[in-house]
Amino acid sequence: MASLSKAYSGKRMTALPFTEQEIVVRSRQGVLRAEADRVAQLVGLTDKELAAALGLSTSYLHRLKTDQRISQDASERLLLLENLLQHALDTFEGRPATVVNWLRTPLRELDNQTPLQTLDTVTGYTLVDRVLGRIDHGISG
Questions:
Q1: Which whole-number Å values give the CA distances from 8 to 57, 92, 100, 104, in the listed order?
Q2: Is 96 exposed, middle or buried (CB count within 10 Å of its CB: 0-12, 13-18, 19+)?
Q3: Which of 55, 72, 76, 94 has the maximal Cβ count within 10 Å?
């Protein structure tokens, strides 16, 4: 997951919110449900999209209270998602609507899956991040 933890080349050269070590530590502690809502609001993800990206059912996500901690696996995915969304916001010049539309669009380089569909695995986060890196460098798929 090294590509998700480094500052990436792009128009803004912004450092990502979490390093790999921070992701490990914070995942083990568990992240609050309220943080999941905050991350989803960065680009306007639906609860269904957020739950899928976290490996949770939508009904389970709805049952969690905002002050409850989510599981270690879901916490790791949430932190990776935040890094990925920040990268996408930088790539698409801070335009949340553009980011969410891109996330919902099937891409050839992802076997005609949407980036959101690919986020059902941790490896999918890396693949989507690589696509963003290619966009940052002007390399088409």
A1: 32, 14, 20, 23
A2: middle
A3: 76
